[in-house]
Structure formats: structure tokens, C-alpha cells
Amino acid sequence: MTRRLPALFATLCLALFLAGCASKPEPQTHYRFDAARAGAPAAQRLPAVLRIAPLQAAEGYRDWRFVYRESDYRYAADPYRGFVAPPAALIGERSEAWLAASGLFQRAYLGNSPNVGEWVLRGRLEALYADLRPGAPRQVVLALHYTLLREGQPALSWTSTGSAAIGTVDGDGIAAAADAALVAALKHLESMLATTDVAVVR
Q1: d(CA 83, CA 174)
Q2: Are the C-beta atoms of residues 84 and 90 closer than 8 Å to each other?
Q3: Which of 45, 131, 150, 162 could be bridged to 184 by S-S, CB 3.0 to 4.6 A?
Q4: DSSP character for 35?
Q5: Which pTM does this prediction carry?
Q6: Cα(183)–Cα(189) distance, rounded to whole angstroms?
Q7: d(CA 102, CA 194)
Q8: Can you tell me the distance from the alpha carbon of 64 to that of 77, in angstroms, rounded to the nearest whole number?
Q9: What is the spatial distance between Cα 57 and Cα 36, in angstroms, rounded to a whole number?
């Protein structure tokens, strides 16, 4: 009986090791936004520098993780899949590049300095989630609320939204849909700035 104890102990150690391997967490996967403006610049609308303030984020969207809407009232964060950084920071970078390429301003500048330009665009990420509710279209929903300020005074406020169907319900599919939703929201942002009546907001 005593001779069998070492073998039994070794078998037990092997079982515990295999169980530990099976329970190892899934490796984290991170994505970024690639949304970029296509086409030629538009005619300059506002002959000034636009300072784009760092994008804020509503509670629940300040983390790097993907957010899933599982029911009308329940949301969950993915512990393994998400963005390479908080999405508000990434969207701010893409917004700067988009508006710089739009040609609407002499320059579009992302930063905190209050001395850069008399026009300031402030934004807040209100929603960014994959809608996985039973019976609902599988899509990523994005909402950005903006306020355009002139010399420190609010001139215009609006919400730019975007949505895109999820091709495959996995990290790659959700990231691609999030990128397409951001393109739609940035197109709306540009159109709002392009149709701003400069005479009214002076």
C-alpha cells in the first residue's frame, strides 16, 4: 500500500496541473479605431483654429473593455476584449485627424491649451456598446454629444450618432462595427460644423 502512495501523489499533482491549465483566463485582445476621412477637403467654412478639447466619457464607457447590451436594462463589460486605450482618447485622436482633413478650419488642434483658437469643440462619449439583446439587430451603437464654443460661450450643441451591423459576434466583428459607427458619427460632426451659420454664432 505504501509503495502506491508516490504514484498516487504524482497522479494527483498532474490532475491539479491540468485543471490549472484549463482554468487559465483567455488572453486579452485589444483593438483601435481606424476611422479616416476619405475624399478631398471641403471649402474652408470657419477661417480660424479649432481647439478640440479632450473627449470626456459617461460612466460605464471610461474603460478600455467592450460593453455589451444584454437586455433593455443590463449591460456587461468584456473582461478579455476591448480597445488599446480608453475609447474616448482614441476617438479624440481620430476626430482631430478627421477635422484636420476636412479643411473646414485653418487648423484642427487636439489639446487643453485655452490659447489656441477662439473656437473650441467639447465632446462627451455618451454611448458605445454592442447591442446583443435577444431579438434586436446585432449592431454597435455610438453616441457623441458636442458643444461648439466661441470665445468661451456655447454657440451650438448637438449629438452625433452612428451605428453599424456586427458581421460576426467576436472581437474582430465588434471592432469593425465600432469603427464603422465612428465613421458615421464623424461624418455627422463634420456636416454640423460645415452648416454652422458663422454670422449667427458671432
Answers
A1: 11
A2: yes
A3: 162
A4: -
A5: 0.84
A6: 10
A7: 9
A8: 9
A9: 21
